[in-house]
């Protein structure tokens, strides 16, 4: 089974959405940021990116369409939100037409409907697109890393993934701070099942195949984790790293840019341990997961089980998510097990 047509559509959608987000990040207004009912932030760019990706996929694929996406239009349909909906509509229309990709003018209602086409619940049957229109909204607001993350599920398995990371340097993060001839940013990672992982500059020039780090000695490995301590327990990952013998300090960046950076070997390990009670969502991991596995990496929960994307919107993982190469995974799993035992409250 080949997904070339779907991959081309996904790359086009994510690249256009990245441009929309870059424009907003450059000129972010306080009024562009709202707080959702779960107290997490959302911006006009999250909504605009979701509307745009949903529109582009429908235009390009003309097929039956199921989309599981993070945002919905509930808050935008409330009294007083008209101005913000108009701003989102303008952003979407500008991004669709700016490079001549489409000759359309969407109405505010078209945009709200495009956002709401992301209401699918996913599941183990048929095909479902999975979208995080801006992953790492907090990073986006700080001017740091974020990603547009788009994946396709078929029969509950991720079969393709695209990660647009507008602020990620094209050169390895390992070289950060050193003199590097290339300080350009903006990466597009993409992977199709069985086809490997590629990275290209977001401006569209040619793609290169990427591979995860081949490091076998944990002392030489470095690890990624969330910038936000509220999203992942930094003290637990520090204990795991210490047990493994990792010497380098953690590299803290927002969003699935971590999966992208790991897929090209910028670091060898990603640790994610949310605080008790948090349930992971499929859009926070689907694209990142295939980008890393097709580059030779392994993504599991703390018990060593692969992530199961077939159960709807949520991922039910044991304790957390860990990512590394095949050689380091057994050592990492042991360090995780020991650290969790040590941290568990004694009864
Ligand atoms: N308490 C929590 N624990 C773990 N993850 C959380 C969280 N609250 C929000 N998140 C998720 O963490 C994602 C960002 O991950 P990271 O820390 O790697 O940047 C957010 O994605 P969004 O920014 O798309 O909402 C959100 O889904
Ligand atoms: Mg969010
Ligand atoms: Mg997210
Ligand atoms: Mg998001």
UniProtKB/TrEMBL annotation:
InterPro entries: DPNP, Inositol_monoP_metal-BS, Inositol_monoP_superfamily, Inositol_monophosphatase-like, Inositol_monophosphatase_CS. It catalyses: 3'-phosphoadenylyl sulfate + H2O = adenosine 5'-phosphosulfate + phosphate; adenosine 2',5'-bisphosphate + H2O = AMP + phosphate; adenosine 3',5'-bisphosphate + H2O = AMP + phosphate. Keywords: Hydrolase, Magnesium, Metal-binding. Its cofactor is Mg(2+). CDD domains: PAP_phosphatase. Its EC number is 3.1.3.7. It is an enzyme of class 3 (hydrolase). Gene3D superfamilies: 3.40.190.80, Fructose-1,6-Bisphosphatase, subunit A, domain 1. It comes from the Eukaryota. Converts adenosine 3'-phosphate 5'-phosphosulfate (PAPS) to adenosine 5'-phosphosulfate (APS) and 3'(2')-phosphoadenosine 5'-phosphate (PAP) to AMP. Belongs to the inositol monophosphatase superfamily. PANTHER family: 3'(2'),5'-BISPHOSPHATE NUCLEOTIDASE, PHOSPHATASE. This is 3'(2'),5'-bisphosphate nucleotidase.
């Amino acid at each position: 089974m080949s997904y070339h047509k779907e991959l081309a559509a996904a790359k086009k959608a994510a690249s256009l959405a990245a441009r929309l987000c870059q424009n907003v990040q450059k000129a972010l207004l306080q009024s562009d940021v709202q707080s959702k009912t779960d107290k997490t932030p959302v911006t006009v760019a999250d909504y605009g990116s979701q509307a745009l990706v949903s529109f582009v996929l429908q235009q390009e694929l003309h097929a039956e369409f199921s989309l599981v996406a993070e945002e919905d239009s509930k808050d935008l349909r409330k009294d007083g939100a008209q101005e913000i909906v108009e701003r989102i509509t303008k952003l979407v229309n500008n991004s669709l037409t700016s490079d001549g990709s489409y000759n359309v003018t969407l109405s505010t209602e078209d945009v709200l409907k495009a956002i709401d086409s992301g209401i699918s619940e996913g599941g183990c049957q048929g095909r479902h697109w999975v979208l995080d229109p801006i992953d790492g909204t907090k990073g986006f607001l700080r001017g740091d890393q974020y990603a547009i993350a788009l994946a396709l599920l078929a029969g509950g398995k991720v079969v393709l993934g695209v990660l647009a990371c507008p602020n990620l340097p094209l050169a390895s993060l390992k070289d950060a701070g050193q003199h590097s001839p290339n300080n350009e940013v903006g990466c597009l990672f993409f992977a199709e099942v069985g086809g490997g992982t590629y990275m290209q500059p977001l401006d569209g020039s040619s793609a290169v195949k990427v591979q995860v780090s081949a490091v076998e000695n944990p002392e030489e490995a470095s690890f990624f984790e969330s910038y936000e301590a509220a999203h992942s327990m930094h003290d637990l990952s520090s204990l795991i790293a210490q047990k493994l013998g990792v010497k380098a300090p953690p590299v803290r960046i927002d969003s699935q840019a971590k999966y992208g950076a790991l897929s090209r070997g910028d670091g060898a390990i990603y640790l994610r341990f949310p605080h008790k009670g948090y349930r992971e969502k499929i859009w926070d991991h689907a694209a990142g997961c295939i980008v890393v596995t097709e580059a030779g990496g392994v993504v599991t929960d703390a018990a060593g089980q692969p992530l199961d994307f077939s159960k709807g919107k949520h991922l039910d993982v044991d304790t957390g998510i860990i990512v590394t190469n095949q050689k380091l995974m057994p050592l990492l799993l042991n360090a995780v097990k020991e650290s969790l035992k040590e941290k568990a409250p004694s009864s």
